[in-house]
Amino acid sequence: MYTQALNTAETDDRGLEDAGKAAQFQARIDAEERIEPNDWMPAAYRKTLTRQISQHAHSEIVGMLPEGNWITRAPTLRRKAALLAKVQDECGHGLYLYAAAETLGSSREELVDAMLAGKAKYSSIFNYPTLTWADIGTIGWLVDGAAIMNQIPLCRCSYGPYARAMIRVCKEESFHQRQGYEIMVTLCRGSDEQKAMAQDALNRWWWPVLMMFGPPDATSQHSDTSTKWKIKRFSNDELRQKFVDATVPQAQYLGLTIPDPGMTQDADGHWRYSEIDWSEFKQVLAGNGPCNRDRMAARRKAHEEGAWVREAAAAYAAKRAQRQSAQAAE
Amino acid sequence: MATPNTPLWEVFIRSRNGLAHKHVGSLHASDATMALQAARDIYTRRGEGLSIWVVPSSAITASDPAEKGMMFEPAESKIYRHPTFYEVPEEVGHM
Question: Is A18 within 8 Å of chain B by CB?
Answer without folding.
Answer: no
